Amino acid sequence: MTGAPGGAGGARYIATAPALADLIAELRRAKRIGVDTEAASFHRYRDRIYLVQVSSPTETALIDPLAIADLAPVGALLANPHIEKVFHDADYDLRVLDRDYGFRAVHLFDTRIAAQLAGEPAIGLAALLEKYAGIKLDKEHQKADWSLRPLPAAMLAYAAADTHHLLTLRDALEQRLRTLGRFSWAAEEFKQLESLRWTGLAPGVDEDGYLRIKGAKTLPPRSLAALRELYRWRERVAEKEDKAPFRIVGNDALVGVSRALPGTQADLGHIRELPSSLARRHGDALLDAVARAKRLREEELPRPERSVRPLKDPGFDARLERLKAVRNRIALELEMVGPHWKRWCGAGRQIAPRSSRFPRSGVGRSTSWATLCSKRCARTPSSRGFSDRCDPESSTAPTRCRCPRLSPLRSRARLCRCRS
Question: What residue ranges of the chain have pLDDT lower than 70?
Answer without folding.
Answer: 1-9, 337-420
